């Protein structure tokens, strides 16, 4: 049976909040049940894209009655949100290098793993040709700040919106709104809705479809942030929402019609999975839900059939120098895509390919290494054990009992385990994009 659609959310909310209130009150040792909700600021259910708004509302009940896991997770989230209050806003026009278009409003980045192969001379100032050194990030990337600033900006928007939702403090929402308007909406600073010049390679190409991955899950976090702000945040207007939906719609058109976009759609590894996530989530956000459903349904055969073996290993990600990273990275896309599918009536969690491979099998394949029970069997030049934690959480929430049993044995990231209060997978190790 397919999960409930968004149209059943009012009934789900009443049942879920009542159940959550009772269970979490008992868990926290509360003497009485949580007080009845009094305003939207307490129980408003945001119409989120990947995140489950009902789950977020249940968390607010749990925090009210003192659930210790939620309180610890929120404390860690607020540390990051408090830091974000003092930084930014960020904009693509804040760079010295001008994109090939001549317009600084165009996003610009360099391929992370490409390095000069020749000494830099007056005749060859860039050291061309550039060659691929998989897994080794070229520090020259720092000379073009759009990529690094995008990561910080999008994370900040997401964390600040969640911080407002849980605390009701206006300063969090107002900062998220400023950051979002600066990057996407204000005429002087906004980014053009394309990635024509992402992950260029000096002396070879101005940009590649492969560069779309730099937006492929962090932009979906911004979509959730916008939906959270639409749930009553002070200062976020209907005009703001309309403008951001317009930007997102233009971006979706570019993703589906440009050469870079159509190139990325053909990728058979994690790039193809993340492209599906990005296009499906953006389609859902702008109201093209039939398109989003079709993308997610097709991803079973298009992605899971090819990418996951019967034992849960991922052959496409097994030839890299950072195999564990790429196994966990592709699962970020798959688990987020499955969460999005639940909101749209598409059950990707239950999909099994003809070999028996599934998202659950892929998560379970990581558990021995993630818990430290046995070494990861493939090479990884920067093995990071906790990188699997979020995807294990997501699978556990979806019913994987092996994943649920393993969570307490996986190390948490340095910033703490944020999944309880932002329950969707993120890439947790030290590579921002691939």
Can you offer a commentary on this structure?
This protein is mainly alpha-helical. It has 2 domains: 1-66, no CATH class; 68-106 and 146-409, Chondroitin AC/alginate lyase (Glycosyltransferase), CATH 1.50.10.100. 49% of the residues lie in helices and 3% in strands. It has 15 helices and 4 strands. It has helices spanning 9-28, 40-43, 53-64, 68-84, 146-167, 170-185, 218-229, 238-257, 259-265, 270-285, 289-307, 323-343, 359-371, 389-397, 401-406, and strands at residues 108-110, 114-116, 130-132, 197-200. The strands form 2 sheets. Strands 1-4 form a two-stranded parallel ribbon. Helix 6 packs across helix 7, helix 10 (270-285) runs parallel beside helix 12 (323-343) and helix 11 (289-307) packs antiparallel against helix 12. It starts with 8 loop residues before the first helix and ends in a 28-residue tail after the last helix. Residues 1-40 have low confidence and may be disordered.
The percentage helix is 40-55%
N-C termini distance? 36 Å
The figure for the number of domains is 2
Q: How confident overall, as mean pLDDT?
A: 90
- Identify the CATH architecture of the largest domain: Alpha/alpha barrel
CATH C-level class of the largest domain:
Mainly Alpha
Low-confidence stretches: 1-40
Describe the main β-sheet briefly.
Answer: 2 strands, parallel
CATH superfamily of the largest domain, please? Chondroitin AC/alginate lyase
CATH topology of the largest domain, by name, is Glycosyltransferase
What pattern of helices and strands is seen along the backbone?
Answer: HHHHEEEHHEHHHHHHHHH
User: What is the chains' assembly state?
Assistant: single chain
Strand adjacency order, main sheet: 1-4
Number of strands: 4
What class do helices, strands and sheet pairing give? Answer: mainly alpha
- How much of the sequence lies in strands comes to under 5%
Shape: globular
- The number of helical segments is 15
Pfam families: Alginate_lyase
Signal peptide: 1-33
Domain Alginate lyase: 93-376
Keywords: Lyase, Signal
């Amino acid at each position: 049976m397919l999960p409930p659609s968004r149209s059943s959310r009012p009934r789900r909310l009443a049942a879920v909040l009542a159940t959550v209130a009772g269970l979490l009150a008992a868990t926290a040792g509360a003497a009485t049940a949580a007080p009845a909700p009094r305003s939207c600021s307490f129980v408003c259910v945001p119409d989120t894209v990947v995140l489950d708004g009902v789950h977020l509302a249940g968390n607010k009940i749990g925090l009210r009655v003192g659930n210790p896991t939620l309180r610890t997770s929120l404390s860690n989230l607020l540390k990051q949100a408090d830091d974000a209050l003092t930084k930014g806003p960020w904009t693509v026009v804040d760079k010295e290098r001008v994109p090939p278009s001549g317009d600084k409003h165009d996003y610009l980045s360099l391929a992370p793993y490409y390095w000069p192969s020749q000494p830099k001379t007056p005749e060859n100032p860039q050291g061309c040709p550039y060659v691929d050194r998989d897994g080794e990030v070229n520090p020259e990337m720092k000379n073009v700040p759009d990529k690094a600033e995008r990561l910080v900006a999008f994370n900040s928007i997401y964390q600040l919106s969640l911080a407002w939702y849980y605390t009701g403090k206006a300063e969090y929402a107002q900062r998220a709104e400023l950051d979002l308007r600066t990057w996407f909406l204000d005429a002087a600073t906004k980014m053009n809705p394309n990635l024509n010049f992402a992950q260029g390679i000096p002396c070879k190409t101005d940009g590649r479809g492969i560069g779309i991955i730099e937006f492929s899950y962090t932009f979906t976090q911004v979509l959730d942030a916008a939906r959270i702000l639409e749930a009553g945040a002070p200062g976020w207007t209907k005009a703001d929402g309309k403008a951001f939906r317009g930007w997102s719609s233009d971006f979706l058109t570019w993703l589906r019609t440009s050469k870079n976009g159509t190139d990325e759609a053909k990728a058979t590894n994690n790039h193809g999975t993340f492209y599906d996530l990005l296009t499906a989530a953006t389609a859902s956000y702008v109201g093209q839900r039939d398109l989003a459903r079709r993308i997610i349904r097709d991803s079973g055969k298009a992605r899971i059939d090819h990418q996951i073996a019967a034992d849960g290993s991922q052959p496409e990600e097994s030839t890299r120098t950072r195999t564990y990273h790429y196994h966990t990275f592709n699962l970020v896309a798959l688990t987020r895509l499955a969460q999005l599918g639940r909101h749209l009536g598409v059950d990707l969690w239950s999909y099994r390919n003809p070999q028996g491979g599934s998202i659950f099998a892929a998560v379970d394949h990581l558990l021995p290494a993630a818990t430290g029970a046995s070494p990861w069997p493939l090479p990884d030049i920067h093995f990071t054990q906790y990188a699997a934690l979020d995807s294990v959480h997501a699978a556990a929430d979806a019913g994987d009992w092996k994943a649920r049993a393993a969570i307490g044995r996986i190390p948490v990231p340095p910033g703490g385990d944020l999944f309880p209060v932002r329950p969707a997978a993120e890439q947790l190790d030290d590579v921002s994009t691939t």
